[in-house]
Amino acid sequence: MGTPAPDSLKRLVDHFDQNRKVFLSGDYKEEQLSTPKTPLEQESIQRQIAVTDRAIDAMVYELYELTEEETGIVEGWRK
């Protein structure tokens, strides 16, 4: 069945599943989400999202054992 998923990817999926269960339960309230109050907080959250997105991408590329050329095609910087 191929290479097993890295532990970091497994932790990410587990974290997602836990949050999804809370979201789908009756215990979830929209107020629980923290809302950035200043432009600095908004920028910080945007940076955290960008870092997380890059980490997820790297884990997926590793999971599928993509070469640098294949990664470039996916990312759009190589044709």
Q: Name the overall outline.
A: flat
Tell me about the largest β-sheet: none
In percent, how much strand structure appears in the residues?
under 5%
Percent range of helical residues:
55-70%
Please give the count of helices.
3
Overview of this protein structure:
It contains 3 helices and no strands. The chain is mostly helical and 79 residues long. The mean pLDDT is 81.
Could you list some keywords that capture this structure?
79 residues; mainly alpha; 65% helix; 0% strand
Short description:
This protein has 3 helices and no strands. It is mainly alpha-helical. It is flat, with a radius of gyration of 17 Å.
Topology:
Layout: H1 7-24, H2 39-63, H3 68-75
